[in-house]
Amino acid sequence: MSKADQMLAILWLIKSHKRITAKQLAEKLEIHIRTVYRYIDALCASGVPIISDSGHHGGYRLLGQFNEAPLVFDLDEQKALIHAAAFALEAGYPFGEKLNQAVTKLKIYTNQEQLEQIYLHEQGLDVILPQADAAEASLLREVEVAVVQRVTLHMHYQKGYGSATAERHLDPYGLVCWKNKCYVVGHCHLRQEIRSFRVDRIRELSRTDLTFERPVDFSARQFILAGVLPDSDKPEVLVSVKITGREQALDDLCGHWFLTHALVERTKHEAHFQLQEKAIYSHLPYQLLSYGGTIQIKEPKLLIEMLMEITQNLHQHYASAQID
Question: Which residue ranges run through the membrane (predicted)?
Answer without folding.
Answer: none
